[in-house]
Specification:
Layout: E1 7-11, H1 17-26, E2 32-36, H2 48-64, E3 69-72, H3 75-88, E4 93-94, H4 100-106, E5 111-116, H5 118-122, H6 124-134, E6 138-143, H7 147-152, H8 158-174, E7 179-182, H9 191-198, E8 203-205, H10 208-221, E9 234-235
Parallel strand pairs: 1-2, 1-3, 2-9, 3-4, 5-6, 5-7, 7-8
The structure holds D-glutamic acid (DGL).
D-glutamic acid (DGL) binds near residues 15, 42 and 75.
Length: about 240
């Protein structure tokens, strides 16, 4: 593996751009190659096999472009198949999972709400994560099947999205959640709307910065940080 290759980043669509943006901020010298698998989005209501096959296909493409690491910028693909990706390919994979731990640490009410795709919320890895980190805090989940389609059609304004966001957020508030996790990278595009719908007393947790920090650490620890001092390139 070479330190001169790009960092590959993929998602079913534009959600992972929120992570790519943070990678760019933290690592201005790195090249980034981003794949939005838009023709096959959304992943969030598909069977495991479909998500695995798409993740393999996109990773094959990224490796054919000599990427030095792959960021699975998708909670659905990470929770469904990151272990299969790690077993099959010889590059480092960095994934993203819902930020249950920071939410648990933040909650005063004792209830945290998780917004995510239907698929993420039924995976064994999400169940294991929630069990491992929740302690005395109750974890309430809310699948949001219609949200990714709305975001992919670039409907991002308060006027266009507040109704649907409220449909998912209000039940979590009614169950006592004072902290809401954006457990799908697409939802970060709606963070201001979700925060406004939830109100000022509710904390919103997203994971882009944590993932970008982890990418930085992994590249450093494996000697893969770009050594050129030029501004990094971007391809989408
Ligand atoms: N952005 C993705 C995630 O974090 C996938 C959404 C979808 O395709 O349903 O889960």
């Amino acid at each position: 593996m070479r330190d001169s290759g790009p960092i590959g980043v993929f998602d079913s669509g534009i959600g992972g751009l929120t992570i790519a943006r943070k990678i760019r901020e933290l690592m201005p010298g790195e090249d980034i190659l981003y794949v939005a698998d838009t023709g096959h989005a959304p992943y969030g209501d598909r069977p495991d096999r479909y998500i695995l096959d798409r993740s393999f296909a996109v990773t094959d493409f990224l490796l054919s472009c000599q990427v030095k690491a792959v960021v699975v910028a998708c909670n659905t693909a990470t929770t469904t198949c990151i272990s299969e990706l790690r077993a099959k390919y010889p590059v480092p994979f960095i994934g993203v999972e819902p930020g249950v731990k920071p939410a648990v640490l933040n909650s005063k009410s004792g209830v945290v709400g998780i917004l995510a795709t239907s698929k993420t919320l039924v995976t064994d890895s999400f169940a294991a994560l929630a069990k491992r980190v929740s302690g005395d805090i109750r974890v309430e989940v809310m699948p949001c099947p219609e949200l990714v389609v709305l975001i992919e059609s670039l409907k991002l304004s308060y006027e266009e999205t507040a109704g649907l966001v409220g449909k998912y957020v209000h039940p979590l508030l009614a169950r006592g959640a004072d902290t809401i996790v954006l457990g799908c990278t697409h939802y970060a595009h709606l963070a201001p709307v979700i925060a406004r719908v939830a109100g000022p007393d509710v904390s919103i947790i997203s994971t882009e910065l944590a993932v970008a920090n982890e990418v930085c650490r992994r590249l450093e620890s494996q000697g893969l940080t770009a050594t050129n001092s030029t501004t990094g390139g971007e391809e989408f």
